[in-house]
Amino acid sequence: MSRRSLSIALLMCVALIATACGSGSQSPSAPGAASEPAPAGSAEASSAASPAGSAEASPAGSGAAVPAISGTLQVGGRYGCEPAPCVPAEGTEGAADEIAYTRVNLFAEKHPEVTLDFTEADFNAQEFLTSVAAGNPPDVVRMDRALIGTYVAEGAIDPLDSCISTFGIDMSQYRQPAVDSVTVDGTVYAIPEFYDSRIILINDTVLSEVGLTPEDINTSDWAALTEVNNKLMAKDGDKITRIGFDPKLPEFLPLWAKANGADIISADGKTSQLDDPKVAEALDYAVSLITAHGSAPAFFDFRSTGPGSAFFGPENQFTEDSVGAFPMEQWYLNVLANDTPDEKISFQPFRDRTGQNISLSGGSALAIPTAAKNKDAACEYIKVITEADSWIAAARARAEMRAADNQAFTGVYSGNSKADEVIFGEIVTEESAGAYWPGVQLVQETADVAFSLPPNAAAEEFTRIWQEAVQRVMNEGVPAAEALADADAEAQSAIDAAQP
Fold it and tell me: Is the pLDDT of residue 21 over 90?
C-alpha cells in the first residue's frame, strides 16, 4: 500500500473512532471542535454549503456584491483573547498578543454579524488531520508555510483562487517568497501571515578581543570564514569556552546549500536534490565550522549547557561572550533589544559565494480546510487580518504598549510588503529600536532576496530525512556525499508516495 493510500485509510479509521467515542479530552495544540451547523435555509447555511467564490458568488470587480457573510466562524490558532470584541482572555491581560487581537478586532468591527470562536491552540498535524477526517475542522487554520504541500496532497485544504478573486484579495501586497511557498502547480492554497528571514548577529566584544571587524564576518569567502571561526573560538585545553561562528545546523542546511548555488529540492517540490554535489560540499563545509571546536557533541553540549546557554533573558550568549557570531531569524532582535538593550552587537547579511546577499524565509500562513463550514467568512477573515491596514494598526498598538512600558520595539515582520513599508518607514524608529536599529534596517534590505523551500507533498518527512542526514555527518563522521545520497533516495520515495 502506498503512503498516500495508507494515510487515507488511517484517517478514515480515525474518523470512525472519533465518531464512536465522541470528543473526549483535547490536546493543548489541537485546532478545536467544529462550528455549529447552520440552520437549513439560513444565510449561514447558504454560505456554508458553497465554497467561497463558487458559481453562486460574483467576482469582485464584476459590479456584483461580494457574498454576504454571517454565522459562526471558528478560527484555529492561539490568539490570546476571547471572542469579539477580542479582548485579552481572563487571567492573561499581561500576556495577550496585541498583534493578533488588534487585527481580529478590525474584522469583528467590520462584520458584527459573524460570531468568532477561537480554538486557542497552536497547530498540531495529527489533531488537524483527525478533525478533517471527522468533518469538523476549524474554518480557518494557521500553519507553518513549510507544511502546506503536505495538506494539499492530503486534500485537507482548499485552493484559494476563487476566494482570492471573489473577495478581491490583492496578492501583489504579499512578499513573493511567501506566496511561492503556498503555491502548488500554479494554485494558491494559503495566504501568508508572518514572515521570517535571517541575518548574521555578531558579538562586537569578542571581535574586538581577537582583532576582527564585523566586515570580516563574510560567508561568501569560506576559506576566510574558517580562519575567522578559528580566531573567534576559545578553548581551555580540550574544553570549549567560546563558540566561534555557529552555522546553525541542521536547520540552516538549505541556506548553506543555496549559498553554494544549490537547492535541496526542485522548484516544483517533486524532486529531491539532496544528492547534488554542491549540497554535499556545503554540508561538509558547515560541519567543519563545528568540528573545528573538537567534536559536534562537545560543541552542542557547550551551546546547551555552557555560559549564556539560556537563549532568552539577560544572561545569553552575547552578554556572556560565549559565541562570536551566528545567523538567526530576525525576531531575535526584539528579544535582545529588551533583554540586553546595551549589548554591543553588529549585523551582516548572509552572502552566497558570489558575494550576493541571500536569506532563508519561513513563517505562518492561513488556510481554509476542505471540510470548513463557513468558507465565505473564512476567506473574508483571512483577507482582513493580512491586509496592510490591519498590520499597520497592530504595529501601532504594539509600539504604543512598548513605549508605555519603556521597552524597545524593533517591528512586526509580516508577509505584507506594503504594510512593512509603513511599519519600518514610520512606526519603528531609531529611538524605538535602540542599538538594534542597524539590524532592523538590514532585515528590510534582505527580506526580498530571501528564498523559501517550495511546497512538497512529503514536507515533514522530507525535513526529517535531510536533518537526520546532517546529524549523521556531524555526529558519526559520515561523509556528506554518502549521507546525502542515502537521504536523497529515501526522500524521493517519500515524495513520490505522497503525491495525490
Answer: no
**Extended beta strands in 298-413, E state:** 323-329, 345-348, 350-351, 357-360, 364-367
User: DSSP 3-state assignment of 130?
Assistant: helix
Residue 118 parent element (H or E):
strand 114-118
To the nearest whole percent, how much of the chain has pLDDT over 70? 83
Pairing relationship of beta strands 234-236 and 239-245 according to DSSP bridges: antiparallel
- The residue ranges of every structural domain in the chain are 51-196+364-431, 198-360+457-498
Are the folds of 51-196+364-431 and 198-360+457-498 the same? yes
Question: What is the distance between the alpha carbons of residues 85 and 174, in angstroms, rounded to a whole number?
Answer: 27
CATH of domain 51-196+364-431: 3.40.190.10
Using the predicted structure, report yes or no on whether residue 270 has a pLDDT greater than 90.
yes
**Are the C-beta atoms of 277 and 498 separated by less than 8 Å?**
no
DSSP class of 425 = I
Question: What is 198-360+457-498's CATH topology?
Answer: D-Maltodextrin-Binding Protein; domain 2 (3.40.190)
Give the burial class of 221: count Cβ atoms within 10 A of its Cβ; 0-12 exposed, 13-18 middle, 19 or more buried: middle
Place of cell 455549529: 36
Which helix or strand (DSSP H or E) is residue 240 part of?
strand 239-245
